[in-house]
Amino acid sequence: DGGITQSPKYLFRKEGQNVTLSCEQNLNHDAMYWYRQDPGQGLRLIYYSQIVNDFQKGDIAEGYSVSREKKESFPLTVTSAQKNPTAFYLCASNRGRQTEAFFGQGTRLTVV
Amino acid sequence: AQTVTQSQPEMSVQEAETVTLSCTYDTSESDYYLFWYKQPPSRQMILVIRQEAYKQQNATENRFSVNFQKAAKSFSLKISDSQLGDAAMYFCAYRSTLYGGSQGNLIFGKGTKLSVKP
């Protein structure tokens, strides 16, 4: 079945460490997105990519980095520069001419 | 920049009754898409319904329907015959149809938490 897979479901990070969240899709979608969800804040865009080897900053990109080496994959790295990384992270994708976005199951990141 | 506002942080409905969730948005564009997403306790985002701005007819999907008022920039979701499984966070979202830039990027409201009482 086609879909978006995020891993891991839960992730714990020590302060000062970088961690990478995985997002893989087999929907043949061109565009992929990373959102951060905090209580009472809705979803905020971190980074997006519309094509391989190209990506753009969203509204809250500071402390995060991404890569898009393959169409299917869009990993997100939460760096030590991100001062408040504890949140729920959602990856999404959509095809250029389609309108709705499909979401992964999310990763809950906690700083310990 | 476009914004989406959901003014009801929480709503409650009795099972089998009808509830309406409100959403307003701000944009200078004439063509765009609007969506309602449901996020149950599993936190999986599920598309409920979508509306193309150029269509005057309100979208419907089974028990879910919208009241789209383009001039007022209002996009409310009506859930009829509410069921226990409808309990979730509901997010209203906007997407531009313009190519380039952030095409495909969804702009979300802060959500409405819906509780369904048996």
How would you describe what is shown here?
The complex is a heterodimer of chains A (112) and B (118). With 112 residues, chain A is an all-beta fold. Chain A has no helices and 11 strands. Chain A is globular and about 40 Å long. With 118 residues, chain B is mostly beta strands. In chain B, the strands form 3 sheets. In chain B, strands 2, 5, 6, 10, 11 and 12 form a 6-stranded mixed beta sheet that branches. In chain B, strands 3-9-8-7 form a 4-stranded antiparallel beta sheet, with no helix packed on it. A two-stranded antiparallel sheet of chain B has the order 1-4. In chain B, 33% of the residues are buried. The model of chain B has no long low-confidence stretch (mean pLDDT 92). The chains are: A mainly beta (112), B mainly beta (118). The interface between A and B is medium-sized, with 24 and 21 residues.
Largest sheet: number of strands, sense, barrel closure of chain A? 7 strands, mixed
Percentage of residues in DSSP E strands of chain B: over 45%
Order of helices and strands of chain A: EEEEEEEEEEE
Q: What oligomeric state best describes the polypeptide chains here?
A: heterodimer
Number of strands of chain B: 12
Order of helices and strands of chain B: EEEEEEEEEEEE
Mean pLDDT of chain A: 92
Query: Which pair of chains has the greatest number of interface residues, and how are they split between the two chains?
Result: A-B, 24 and 21 residues
Q: pLDDT under 50 segments of chain A (min length 5)?
A: none
Structural class of chain B: mainly beta
> How widely separated are the two ends of chain B?
41 Å
